[in-house]
Automatic annotation (TrEMBL):
It comes from the Bacteria. GO terms for molecular function: nucleic acid binding. This is Phosphoesterase, DHH family protein. Residues 230-311 form the DHHA1 domain. Residues 17-154 form the DDH domain. InterPro entries: DDH_dom, DHH_sf, DHHA1_dom, Oligoribo/pAp-PDE_c-di-AMP_PDE.
Amino acid sequence: MSIETSILEQIKENETIIIHRHQRPDPDAYGSQCGLAAIIRANFPSKKVYQVGENVHGLAWIAEPEKIEDDVYKDALVIVTDTANQPRVDDKRYTKGRYLIKIDHHPNEDPYGDICWVNTKASSCSEMIMDLVNALGGELTVPDDAARMLYAGIIGDTGRFMYDATTPHTMRIAGQLMEHDFEPAKVNQKLDSIALPVARLAAYVYENMTITENGAAYIVLTREVMAKFAIKDASTAPIVPLLGKIIGVKCWTILVQQKDGSFRLRIRSKGPVINELAKEYAGGGHPLASGAFMPDAEKIPEYIKKLDAVAASYEDHTGETND
């Protein structure tokens, strides 16, 4: 029995299904979680299907999570999408169900769940949800709204098809989703739009960023800076790709100070592998897109030296120069 068939069997056997995703969700977390929930609801209307986790206002247009009581987990099937490590699962009740399934596309360093389906070659977890549907030979249909959610997830995790994780298969899946009744251009525009405070913060980032001699770039966004632009951490996502647009930058980090004084690190790369560096700072992720954490600002200089060393060790074959 294939892993996709095993997942379908569990969906069929359980009357209550609860779907989780990671903390600080992005479009792929929302898209894979809520897209899968919508597919299950459409094909099994008698089942009770819930999507849980914090509500992120900026992503509410994709879908919204639901609040459920603890007793709903009794004898439930729990599915966690787009979450590599158990500490990152949003809503710690995910272990309270009868059966647990992990569906993810990050490196499988924490293989939790009774079924653990991981495909690191997938551009996104949303792509994997469509792979699940396609592998089952017509047993599941995809409603239009689920197609919209999954498309948003793919667009989000591929940076509108600009990142290396985009494959011919990714494009075929995106095309399949675009055949449904929703407006892909509006999804693209929604994900590409930024609020005026974010635009002003973007200008600040370009004015105040630092680029090392070896092509590592960074910016530290303190609580004071965030307050000046009336920006919260969740709204900094559109800022993350900016440094990578600069010719000569190989890898970069946005360091965002949290309420408790700690820093969240958003680490990205156009070539150098940065997830090993992320692991040194309580993080991890994809080779070219990772996250990490620092308890305070004391280790920032040390981190920047290591980021610069990663950039220095990478031979750039793109033809980019710092000129």
